[in-house]
## 1
Amino acid sequence: MKENPRDSFLQHALALEYLKLGDKNQARKIFEEILELDPDYVGSYYHLAKLLEGMGEIDVAITWYEKGMETAKKIGDLHSFGELRSAYEELKF
């Protein structure tokens, strides 16, 4: 991690570890940093939106799901698009 602290995969894994430890704020911060620096890292959209959903920030979660779907579609990641759309629809409807 010290060699490449901006590696999105490693940062994503770290955020998931913070979630396991119950530190939602630190996980959120890391997910947001990942998406700011690497907006095509689609997996973080789902986890960030789910986290926000669980924190009661529904409108913000919906925004992240929408951004994630748009990005997944743009890069051709249909699997991630489907997961994001499913979670989005569950929340929205």
## 2
Amino acid sequence: MNSTLKYKNFIATIKYSEEDEAFIGKIEGINSVVSFEGQSVQELKDAFRDAVEDYLDFCKRKGITDIRKTYNGVLNIRIPSEIHSRVAMYARSQGTSINAFIRDSIERKLEYAH
């Protein structure tokens, strides 16, 4: 089973709870904790859609306009020193910075993901 669900540009991570004998989901990328569950895949999908709609309704009622988690744009990654060296050398050879190289690489990867 895929470990994520998507609905209206929201993503949920999914885990199976043996104790509860149910799928447990959590909406990611928002400033609230919204979880849901289902005993079957269809129940889980329905519960996810309901959870997203409930969250959107809640935000609307409360006047919350920032419905997504905000990120500050700073990302600290850990990579092997050999890759770090290769990235630095390649960026330098292209007349760019490591940050610009990584940002461009991530943007290209995300373009292909859609």
## 3
Amino acid sequence: MRLDKSITQDEYDKKAIELKQRQYELTERLRRIIEADENYSITLISLLNICSKAPELFESSKVEQKRQLINFLLSNLKLKGKKLEFTVKKPFDVLVNLDYRSNWLGREDSNQK
């Protein structure tokens, strides 16, 4: 457009500055997304490590720590006779309800060889 003189040099310069600013904004946004993704992965791995050690942590904990752990994982605790009823909080409910795992495979042949 500049070569065929359909815009002025000032318009061209202004647009170039706008596009460069937009490029910086998008680069910064991408950096924040990548950082958030890395932090999410680290948090998820830590959470899974803690979950895998939950029985040992629970056994070695004091009563107040046990209470906090139970409140962290469960809600709607009710004692009906000798049976304890509860609801597992998100995201732990996914780990408890593993019947959803068949949905994780994607295509039927995606993990086979």
